Structure formats: structure tokens, C-alpha cells
Amino acid sequence: GQGVDEPLSATGFRQADAAGVFLSNVKFTHVFSSDLLRAKQTCAAILGKNKFCRDLEIKYDARLRERKYGVAEGRPLADLKAMAKDAGEQCPSFTPSGGETLDEVKERARDFFEFLCQLAVGLEHKEAGASSRSSGTPKEQFVFPWANHCSEGEPSSEGSGSSKELDANILVVSHGAYMRNWIGYFVSDLNCTLPTNLTKSHLSSVSPNTGVSHFIVKLENGNLSKPEITCVCLNQDSHL
């Protein structure tokens, strides 16, 4: 949850370093992290291994915090399940006293995602203005290490499927329950295109620590109301 701001364990630091090595050749344009300590440390470890953007500014955002669990914060998952059972409900839909509902978590995720879309549209407008004054520059090519592992959901492109021309390539470091809700918002509200091999159990499961999910978001003509979202991979953990 949010109330117990514990640092990473020794295992957590090893996993963060492994994720950093895995992502070391990925050139990010922007980095956002939850402002909770474990996410900050994970994000710093990832950038610390990166060949291109070690000095990129990390922007911390409270909207990326883990779900608030109220009276269950800092307690074992078994306690939360017992509370849910006593209330005649099931996890994760059960909301402990003082905790956030799933709808409240989704609203935080929606708000942050719309902020990212506005950021991307702003970048596109800047590039358009620059190209009108000069010959313009090609968009960045980004190479992703999981392209050979899970490219079924990836849109086709000229040449290798492992490189994409994008306006922005944004790293977001958050938490398991929060990200599950965010992905649910993508699928249920925004009709995200999923890899053909993805099952419902994959969608409902919580990512392993430092699991990597990759989404391509297209905003046709800067239209913020109808983002086209494609899931390339979900909870990728080959680095662990």
C-alpha cells in the first residue's frame, strides 16, 4: 500500500538491477515514477544501467502510488484475504476500511494517462513547428529487447519489428495492484489491442516485481479522446 514506505529488499535491488541491464539499450525520452521509496529506488537502478539516459530527470508523481489499503496497509496479503472473506467479498474488489476502491484507483490511472497523452501531443506540435522553420528531423528509432519474445501484438512496420519511430518513449515505474487497474482501464474503457496469446488470467494477474509491459499509443491528429492503444507485451519477466 501507501502508508508503509519501505525501501527495496536485497532481492528487490537485484531485480531492479536486472531490469536495468535488460533495458540498458532502450533510449527513453521521459521518465515518471511513483513517489514511494521502493519505486524511486527501482527507477534509479534502471536508469543507472542505461547507456543513453542515466542523467534523464525522473519526475515523481503521487498519481502512480500503489492502491491505498487502509487498515490492511503493511499487513500480509493473507490478512487482506481474511478481511474480504469476513465481509463476504473477494480480493481484489474488496475495499478495506480507509482504503481506495478500484474505481478510485482507475480514476488516478485515467488522470495520469490523459496527462501523458497531452504531453505527447505537445511534443508533436513542437516538432511540427520546428519542421516548418527547417528541413525537419526524422523521429527517433527505438529498439526494444523483448521484440523477439512477444511481438504478436506489435503493429507491423517497415524493416525490423524491433525498432519503432516514435515521438516519445516514456518509462513509467509504478506498483502491481495499481498497474493491474491501469491495464484494466486500457482494455475495458479504451479497447486496447492485446497479443493473441494473452489469456484472461494474464490480464487479471499482478506483474512480478520489475515486470515490463509495453504499450504503443497513437493519437491520430492529436485527438486526445480516442487514443489507439496496442499492448506489445504484458508483465515480461525474462530478465528475472
From TrEMBL:
<protein>
    <submittedName>
        <fullName>TIGAR bisphosphatase</fullName>
    </submittedName>
</protein>
<dbReference type="InterPro" id="IPR029033">
    <property type="entry name" value="His_PPase_superfam"/>
</dbReference>
<dbReference type="InterPro" id="IPR013078">
    <property type="entry name" value="His_Pase_superF_clade-1"/>
</dbReference>
<feature type="binding site">
    <location>
        <position position="38"/>
    </location>
    <ligand>
        <name>substrate</name>
    </ligand>
</feature>
<dbReference type="GO" id="GO:0045820">
    <property type="term" value="P:negative regulation of glycolytic process"/>
</dbReference>
<dbReference type="InterPro" id="IPR051695">
    <property type="entry name" value="Phosphoglycerate_Mutase"/>
</dbReference>
<dbReference type="GO" id="GO:0043456">
    <property type="term" value="P:regulation of pentose-phosphate shunt"/>
</dbReference>
<keyword id="KW-0378">Hydrolase</keyword>
<dbReference type="Pfam" id="PF00300">
    <property type="entry name" value="His_Phos_1"/>
</dbReference>
<feature type="binding site">
    <location>
        <begin position="66"/>
        <end position="69"/>
    </location>
    <ligand>
        <name>substrate</name>
    </ligand>
</feature>
<dbReference type="GO" id="GO:0005829">
    <property type="term" value="C:cytosol"/>
</dbReference>
<dbReference type="GO" id="GO:0004331">
    <property type="term" value="F:fructose-2,6-bisphosphate 2-phosphatase activity"/>
</dbReference>
